[in-house]
Design brief:
OB fold (Dihydrolipoamide Acetyltransferase, E2P), about 160 residues, mainly beta, six-stranded mixed beta sheet, globular, about 40% strand, about 10% helix
């Protein structure tokens, strides 16, 4: 898949999950949709709590806020979105609290996540961080391959 570049910049979709900021290259996103008409999955892990139909494809909903036990800074379900990703065998929707923007980010602001002290396992789903400005929060860059690997290891009772 071709990267969306403008010079030495990537086009990133920014999202908020709990009070943590994440970003993902736009070309890895199929669609951003309302989290409506989801069906619960009995006996599933709490962070894989539902599925939804997206134009005939069954999409598993992955709730990173529940997985990491992030606290909510505000109760704003009307801004929640499902970011639909499809990569190799991965067919998943990330439940996010809010899409905060889409913008180009310079490759020069990308740093390794190990340089940060974090309250959660950054490396589990992120490959880098964006440190755009010292006055702004760090943005964790989601890694679709790591999400796919994790999702492939989930065992559902049956």
């Amino acid at each position: 898949m071709k990267k969306i570049l403008r010079g030495d910049e990537l086009l990133i979709v920014f999202m908020l999950i709990g009070d943590v900021h994440f970003g993902l290259e736009i070309q890895k996103i199929i669609s951003i949709v309302e989290p409506k008409q989801r069906r619960t999955i009995p006996l599933s892990p709490p962070y894989i709590n539902s599925i939804m139909n997206y134009y005939g494809s069954i999409v598993t909903i992955f709730d990173l806020k529940t997985y990491f036990a992030f606290r909510s800074t505000e109760d704003n379900d009307e801004e929640a979105k499902v970011v639909y990703l499809k990569h190799n065998e991965l067919n998943v929707g990330l439940l996010v609290d809010k899409i905060t923007g889409i913008d180009y980010v310079s490759l020069s602001v990308i740093e390794e996540p190990g340089a940060l002290d974090s309250d959660f396992e950054v490396e589990k789903f992120c490959n880098n961080v964006f440190i755009i400005n010292e006055d702004e929060p760090v943005v964790y860059r989601l890694d679709v391959e790591k999400i796919e690997d994790f999702m492939n290891r989930i065992v559902f009772p049956g």
